[in-house]
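Async update (no meeting this week)

Hi team, since we skipped the sync, here's where things stand on the single-chain job. The sequence we agreed to prioritize is pasted below, unchanged from the tracker. I ran it this morning and attached the output directly underneath so nobody has to dig for it. Comments welcome in thread, and please keep replies under the output.
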Amino acid sequence: MSQYPCTITECPRISRVLCYCCKNNYCIEHLKDHNDIYLSQLYQLTNDINKLSEYFRGQYRQQLDQWRHESHQTIDLYYEKKCQELDNKIIPNEILNQNRQVIEWIKLKISQLIREQNTTQEQIDSLKAAINAVKREIEHILKENFQLNIPSLILDENFIQIENFNLNSTIKSLFLTKNLITDNSIVMTNSSKYFLINQQSNLCLYDKNLNIIKQIRWEYGCIWDMCIFDNLSKFILVSENGIFTLDEQTMIIEQIKNLSILNKFWYCCTCSDKSLFLATQQLNTTIYEYILKQNNFLLKRQQICCSNNEYIEHMKSTKDLLALIILNDLTNERHFNMRSILTFDQLWTISLSINEKINIVSCCSLNEKGWLIVDIAQTRLIYINNQGYIKQSITYKPSPHYAVQFDDNILAILTEHGINLHKIQ
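Output:
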């Protein structure tokens, strides 16, 4: 039998148990109290983790809850407005007012009969007939004079977009790299099958495994920009000696003569499904949109998109959007400008906080996920969502020169040493 006293001060009992956790002796009564202390801590931890779980759930649903609340308010306000309009149209109707009077008379008559506790079946049948008559007349008036056209409120699956692109995870998912000598080229492009890169004075096509497929000698000076024109099934190349096409099947290079003899120093290009967009490096830059008709590029429209001290440094397009990186020649400030490809109207703009004089910035569409900015001078990648907010900015080594998205899940980055392929996360 244990002869050790209970650890609890002033307890006269002999201990019955040694606690192996704290190495103290306890009597039966205080052993339960001692154990309850541990249990209470577990209960508190359970509460803490439940609160953390609810906090986590609430954080990512907070924006949706706010949207739902504001949407309900908007619908309620609209509902009240339409009710008021309906009342204003119905109240002046003389026949409806007469029927209202009949309804009030029927109410009073029914109340009177209830109070008197004295009625007959004949009176009840008479009241039923009166109610039905008023009902038929009101329904007829409303049907003939007050038609409500209420369409269903349709929200498609893309009405609210959930961002699921993570730049850090994507960069960490490097799965293929190839060292290349790119003649200090800082541009590249891609079709649905190949990457196009200027390498040691050759135009080279690489497949998605970075195997070189075809190449041809390039003899037309420095290439400022390039893009793929799907409608023509050819690459467009803007160089210091004019604008050229490259057929990825035959590798034939041809000059677009009517665009090369316009005495314009073309600097950047991009293509939509049906149009070729070109811009010079002159201040107060004008964007020119050309469409292809009978193998000739015809000017469709032109639009000034910069102020007097600005010019377009880079541009890219999607099916609906035209993205511009605009440089202020006096302050060296840059902003990322998003426009409608149909109207050239500005949708939003954001400062990039990049103030280098030399041309060092390009952008890459990430489709529905947003846009990627390549900052050569600071060796950075900047992720901007489709609403025009900078979400992430990370340092990238080796120094990035250009980026394109290949297929739906590959991000290709041209660096000072070659090409890196990443899985988009």
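Quick observations from my side:
Residues 13 and 29 are 9 Å apart (CA to CA).
The radius of gyration is 37 Å.
Reply here if anything looks off.
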